[in-house]
Amino acid sequence: MKRKKALTKAKIFKEAIKLADNYGIANLSMRKLAKKLNIEAMSLYNHLANKEELLDGIVDEVFSKIDWRTDTKSKSWKPELRKQAIAVRAVLLQHPWSIKLLNSRSNPGPSVLRHHNKVLGLLMSCGFSYSMCAHTYALIDSYVYGFVIQECSLPATRGCDFVEMTASINALSRQGFPYLTKMAEEYYLKPEYSFSDEFLFGLDLILNGVEQAFKH
User: Fold this and answer.
1) Domains plus CATH for the chain?
2) Engineering a disulfide at 177: which of 54, 77, 104, 172 sits with its beta carbon 3.0 to 4.6 angstroms away?
3) CA dihedral in degrees (3, 43, 108, 27; nearest 10)?
4) 37: how many CB neighbours lie within 10 A of its CB?
5) pLDDT confidence tier of residue 185, bands split at 50, 70 and 90
């Protein structure tokens, strides 16, 4: 008879993330998680103190997925910070529900702390003051998180998708919104258009601004 594998925190967090990915964080409950794991709900409390520990755990697991390899002794902060923002966005797109949790936990796990420490180490080693570290980190995080929220909320993100909205765009024209109509026809409806491309444009503007502030 095949022995059942022992339940671990790692397995619990993995299944919790799957549930959140499929149904949203609002629908993640200890009862549903236990059902997914084929155990009684109370059995979860043999591994977790409460739901807060579960949320702390899945946030830390999400952070552990951020694939950003860099040397904190690097003196090239700008390209490194660019890679960091791109890596964070890639993970958030896989788990958009995590955005509201990422910086809201009062008991951050080791992956969260390592990531923050790594970013700060990069900036400090490049001569950033404490205030510039804080300004830069807040600015980049706000932009990345906000962009992903918008990206995941838009009804269409590519030119070929916007084509399906042509009827609505024509209606705008008739209702007296010529600039919206012109923008759609000359830009958004082009086959090569992708909202995702806007991310790097905005990110580079921010990094250039940080660079100018850092110089002064």
Assistant:
1) 1-48 (1.10.10.60), 62-154 (1.10.357.10), 159-188 (no CATH)
2) 172
3) 100
4) 16
5) confident
Residue whose pair of structure tokens reads 């008739």 in the numeric block: 174
Residue 163 has pLDDT above 70, yes or no: no
Both tokens of 214, joined, read 């850092």
Give CA torsion, residues 199, 195, 62, 18, to 10 deg: 180
Cα–Cα distance for residue pair 201/137, rounded to 1 Å: 18
What pTM was estimated for this model as a whole?
0.87
Taking a C-beta distance cutoff of 8 angstroms, is the pair 57, 12 a contact?
Answer: yes
Burial string for 86-121 (b: 16+ CB within 10 Å, else e) reads ebbbebbeebbbbbebbeebeebbebbeebeebbbb
Regarding predicted confidence, which is higher, 215 or 20?
A: 20
Two structure tokens written together for 78: 């700008």
Burial of 1 (0-12, 13-18, 19+ CB in 10 A): exposed
Helix (H, G, I), strand (E, B) or coil at 158: strand
What pLDDT is recorded for position 140? 96
Residue holding tokens 């958009």? 96
Encoding tokens for residue 28?
């993640």
C-alpha to C-alpha distances, 124 to 14, 73, 210, 215, nearest whole angstrom: 34, 9, 14, 14
Query: 20, 7 in Cβ contact below 8 A?
Result: no
For residue 194, the SS3 value is strand
